[in-house]
Amino acid sequence: MDHKLWRLILIPGLLSIFYFPAVIWGTMYAVRPVTRYLHAQWVPEFLQSTLTLALLGVVIWALSIYVGFLLFRNVIMILCSPLLSYISETVEKVSGGIEPPKFTWQGVGREILRATCLSLLAVLISAFAFALCFLIGLIPVAGAVVAFALMTIIQSYLAGIGFADPVLERRRYTIPSTLKFARRHRPRLIGVGVGFLLLMAVPIIGWFVAPSYGIIAGTLAGLDLLKEEANPPTLPPA
Asked: Where are the strands (E) in the chain, listed by range?
């Protein structure tokens, strides 16, 4: 509050609030033609009926909403990367008294590019994990429980990496170096991601505060974890 962080969370917060209604609207707009096309082209003729059309529609609707949920963090991280990075810099300065690098448009472009690359990597990992969890989920009862738990852990881990990354980026960590750092500190980063996902489960208020919570928690976690490194890097000169 004393450092005017509230005004910094408005843009990611408002984007978050409008994101899910946009996903729901887009799904409502697209689900009917997509369902009819798949029903006509991919469902065997002897299985085609009003019931199978309705069931297929429900499946496509659920998958669309789920994919939209998985993409949420990546979309917000890309669109708001300079602002979230600035929030992270402010938190680091307040917590450690360190003066962050000066603002430059070149730095903004670098932050957007890095956030995009890291988010695309997270999407690829999520797609692979989703396919794996879908197969596991085919196992009756236990499979669904294991698949849900595994997918939650993976998404929490990816979220934790993304939110801690600005701290590492300021110390010139490459993306492979960030991933190695994350592997060494999985439990803490998963914890950051779990908090983010729990907030995302709360409509409106949770959506509004989730991105800023994530970047603040990720920054504090990253700073703490850097102290545990054998040779922690320092900020390069401004």
From this structure: none
Both tokens assigned to 229:
């490194």
pLDDT by residue (tens digit) across 94-105? 887 566 556 565
- Structure confidence by residue, pLDDT tens digits, 65-106: 777 877 888 888 888 888 888 888 888 888 875 665 565 656
| 107: pLDDT strictly greater than 70 | no
Contact call for residues 183 and 154 (beta carbons, < 8 A): no
Distance (Å) of CA 228 to CA 99, 108, 192: 21, 29, 17
Residue 56: which H helix or E strand, with range? helix 50-79
Domain boundaries of the chain, sorted by first residue:
6-228
Contacts of 81 (CB under 8 A, 6+ apart): 111, 112, 114, 115, 116
Determine contact, residues 9/212, Cβ cutoff 8 Å.
yes
Can you tell me the distance from the alpha carbon of 161 to that of 191, in angstroms, rounded to the nearest whole number? 11
Least confident of 45-49, 179-183, 195-199: 45-49
Residue 224 CB neighbour total at 10 angstroms: 14
For the purposes of burial, counting CB atoms within 10 Å of the CB of 210, is it exposed (0-12), middle (13-18) or buried (19 or more)? buried
* CA separation, residue 122 to residues 70, 114, 117, 141 (Å): 10, 12, 9, 28
Distance CA 68, CA 20 (A): 8
pLDDT computed for residue 234 by the predictor? 63
